[in-house]
């Protein structure tokens, strides 16, 4: 007898949950919908400084140029339940992976670097754009879009 496929639940994680991971959440949500793929997607930060806040205005503006709406997203901090709730946990950089591994209960979903999906020998992390200019947010979105396409291709 065929087992019912497990529902895909994807969590993106960065440091503050106001720039990279909410952008990845919004991009995957819309690209999956456009591809007819059903999944649950969320994001969280390893830190708690921005809990309850909307994404950074620069991230909202960069996403808006691609018709991606992220105004309803609010920051939250990652919690131990996330490791059993989510089938995939994608981190934006190595320090996020280290923070997640320190929290991960035994048997919980293992976090992986999101950009490992594109297997680029040069870039394996989504750089933190917080202290830079708008161009950093555009670059961030390009990297996220590429890894999102790889992820969706891996499902088909
Ligand atoms: P994120 O960017 O991790 O991509 O959301 C940051 C947002 C805020 C801070 C650092 C990174 N911060 O130091 O407040």
Model description:
The chain has 156 residues and is α/β, with parallel strands linked by helices. The protein contains five helices and four strands; from the N terminus they run E-H-E-H-H-E-H-E-H. The chain has one domain: 3-Layer(aba) Sandwich (Rossmann fold), CATH 3.40.50.2300. The chain has helices at residues 20-35, 57-64, 82-85, 94-103, 134-155; strands at residues 9-14, 40-45, 88-91, 112-113. A four-stranded parallel β-sheet has the order 2-1-3-4. Strand 3 (88-91), helix 4 (94-103) and strand 4 (112-113) form a beta-alpha-beta unit. Helix 1 packs across helix 5 and helix 2 packs across helix 5. The longest helix is centred in the C-terminal third of the chain and has 22 residues, at 134-155. The chain is globular, with a radius of gyration of 15 Å. The protein starts with 8 loop residues before the first strand and ends with a helix.
Primary descriptors:
156 residues; alpha/beta; Rossmann fold; 4-stranded parallel beta sheet; globular; binds 4-nitrophenyl phosphate
What is the helix fraction of residues, given as a range? 25-40%
CATH H level, superfamily name: Response regulator
- Which ions and ligands are bound to the chains? 4-nitrophenyl phosphate
Give the integer mean of the pLDDT values. 96
Q: Describe the global form.
A: globular
Number of helical stretches of at least 4 residues: 5
Note poorly predicted spans.
Answer: none
Total domain count: 1
Oligomer: single chain
What is the count of β-strands? 4
User: Which series of helices and strands comes N to C?
Assistant: EHEHHEHEH
Taken as a percent bin, the fraction of beta residues is 5-15%
């Amino acid at each position: 007898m065929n087992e019912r496929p497990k529902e895909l639940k994807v969590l993106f994680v960065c440091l503050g949950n106001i720039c990279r991971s909410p952008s990845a959440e919004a991009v995957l949500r819309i690209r999956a919908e456009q591809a007819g793929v059903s999944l649950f997607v969320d994001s969280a930060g390893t830190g708690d400084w921005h809990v309850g806040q909307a994404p950074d205005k620069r991230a909202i503006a960069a996403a808006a140029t691609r018709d991606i709406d992220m105004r309803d997203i609010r920051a939250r901090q990652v919690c131990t339940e996330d490791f059993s709730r989510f089938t995939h946990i994608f981190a934006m950089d190595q320090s996020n992976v280290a923070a997640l591994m320190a929290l991960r209960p035994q048997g919980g979903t293992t976090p992986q670097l999101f950009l490992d999906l594109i297997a680029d020998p040069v870039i394996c992390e989504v750089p933190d754009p917080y202290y830079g200019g708008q161009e950093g947010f555009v670059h961030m979105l390009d990297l996220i879009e590429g890894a999102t396409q790889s992820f969706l291709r891996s499902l088909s």
